Amino acid sequence: MRQVILDTETTGLEPLESHKIIEIGCLEMVNRRLTRNEFHHYLNPGREIDEAAIEIHGITLDSLEDKPRFEELAEELLSFIRGAELIIHNAPFDVAFLNHEFSLAGLGENVIRENCEVLDTLVLARHKHPGQKNSLDALCKRYEVDNSQRQYHGALLDAEILADVYLAMTGGQISLLGESEDLTRAGGMLPGRSNGVDAGNGAGAPGSGQGSTPLVRANEQELAEHERWLGLLDQEAPGKVVWRNIKSGE
Question: Does the structure show a pLDDT above 70 at 147?
Answer without folding.
Answer: yes
